[in-house]
Amino acid sequence: MSLALRNLQRAVPLRRALLRQRLQAVRGALGVQAFDLGVVCVDNRKIQQMNRVYREQDTPTDVLSFPFHENLKAGEIPQPNFPDDYNLGDIFLGVEFILQQCKEDEDYYDILTMYQKEKQVLQELNKHMGTRLQPLSRGLF
Questions:
Q1: Where is the signal peptide (predicted)?
Q2: 8 A C-beta contact, residue 110 and residue 84
Q3: Contact assessment for residue 1 and residue 23, using Cβ atoms and an 8 Å cutoff
């Protein structure tokens, strides 16, 4: 099925083709490539507005997700009964907030922990996808 990727912000330069490629790889590794998924990149102002409306938190955030299927447990893949139910929902990425977090408040141990998790996830992706993805923080430690 399809991956709808929209960039509704201008605060952070974004390479959509590269992001689309990585999202498709993750969908494949998770076994959900048969489902539609919407990913929307927004700035701080928009993600804060959405966070205020949907979570009653008046601050920007990194991600907001709106699942199509209710009552799923974490990691559970939906079992659709109808073709129109092959939809995962929408994910809004606060790309400006994410970039700011990457530059501020970086604790060495938090980064190191994330680096180890990133390596584990990428190893699994590489095994399933036949790719050679490397952590973005490679060479820092």
A1: none
A2: no
A3: no
Say which residue the tokens 């509704």 belong to.
Answer: 8
| pLDDT of amino acid 108 | 39
pLDDT averaged over every residue in the chain = 81
Question: For the ranges 31-40, 96-105, 113-122, which has the lowest average pLDDT?
Answer: 113-122
Does residue 141 contact residue 119 with C-beta atoms inside 8 Å?
no
* pLDDT tens digits along 31-79: 889 999 999 999 999 999 999 999 999 999 888 889 999 887 767 789 9
Give the separation between CA 104 and CA 7, rounded to whole angstroms.
24
Block residue for tokens 């790719």: 131
Residue 60 token pair: 């920007």
* Exposure b/e, 101-115, CB count within 10 A at least 16 = b: eeeeeeeeeeeeeeb
User: pTM score, two decimals?
Assistant: 0.74
Partners of residue 93 on adjacent β-strands: 41, 63
